Amino acid sequence: MSSSETTPPTSGGPDHGFTLTKRRRWPYVAGAAVAIVAVAAGLTVPRLLPEASANDTKGATLYVATAEGNAAEEALVDYVAKEVAPDYGIKVAFKGLSDSTTLNRAVSEGEVAGTVYQHKLWLSQVLKANPDFKETAATPVFRWGFGLWSSKWKTVDAIPDGATISLYSDPANEAQGLWILDRAGLITLKPGIDKGYATQDDIASNPKHLKFTLLDFAAQSRSLDDLDAAVGYTEYYLAAGIPVSKQIYAPAAPDQFAGQLTVGTKYAKSDNVKKLIAAFKDPRVQTFLSTDSKVKNILLPVDAK
Question: Is 213 exposed, middle or buried (0-12, 13-18, 19+ CB in 10 A)?
Answer without folding.
Answer: middle
